[in-house]
Specification:
110 residues, mainly alpha, three-stranded antiparallel beta sheet
Length: 110
């Protein structure tokens, strides 16, 4: 979704989060370029005037995104996952030895 679209309901008279800042973060999330720590550290400017989004709606969407990012990281599929946990690594580690593999040497028991 482009930054010019309204992702969330507009803020009421009490104010809300700056729409451009919220849109920037959600653009990154949609592009797969944001990680859980980006969402956790998000700190939007609160606006009473100008283009602003309803805070409750934004907070609910951020909570859902954070849950999704944590689930991906737990499954080893997200950008927050350690490099050793990327897809394919576990299958390679669990694969049986091939015909050309050399068994480990037995320790000397002299």
């Amino acid at each position: 979704m482009s930054s010019g679209s309204s992702r969330f309901p507009p803020a009421g008279w009490r104010g809300g989060y700056d729409a451009a800042e919220v849109d920037d973060l959600f653009d990154l999330l949609e592009a797969g370029a944001a990680v859980a720590s980006d969402v956790e550290s998000a700190d939007f400017t609160e606006r009473r005037f100008g283009r602003a989004y309803d805070m409750t709606a934004v907070d609910a969407a951020l909570s859902a995104e954070l849950d999704r990012l944590h689930a991906l990281a737990d499954a080893g599929l997200g950008a927050d996952a350690p490099a050793a946990s990327q897809p394919g690594d576990q299958e390679a580690a669990e694969a049986p030895p091939g015909p050309d593999s050399v068994p480990p040497e037995a320790p000397d028991r002299a």
